[in-house]
Amino acid sequence: MAFLVMDQEPFADAEPVGRLTSYAPPVHDIVHELTIAAEPKAVFEALTTARGLARWWDPGCDTDLEADATLTLPLPSGDITIRVGLLEAPELMQWEITDGPREWAGTTVAIRIEELDADVAGGDGPVSLVNFWHGGWPYEDGLMPKASFDWALRLAALRALAEQAG
To answer: What fold, for 27-165?
Structure first.
């Protein structure tokens, strides 16, 4: 963007860098949506049990998720520590990432699972719609693009696991 007219007035009494403002800094979100040919219960179990997490997240996962629990999940770029804020079987899950690689701490992951009507899904068996959101990223050009791609791969592994189990 270029100035068409150079007006020096706004720069005469510039405020110091780092001043407090009344607005929140912009944050960015990762959003994915996928269908899984399985019941919501099977998808939820894959997301929240040690057996399920070990198959789509990392073989080192050895604990079930429980509301208000804090646990560490491995990532190739460094482990993340999460606090499970909400678990409502078989449809809602929410984590707060409290520690991990730069930019991950302070972000939130939420997943909603809905069962689609058979006539809408167009399949023979149950179909779940999974809405995935990982929000609160401070930069859109930092670790977020890689994290979005990694989430897509993990969600594809989740789909394969849930469809196999269901």
So the answer is: Alpha-D-Glucose-1,6-Bisphosphate; Chain A, domain 4 (3.30.530)
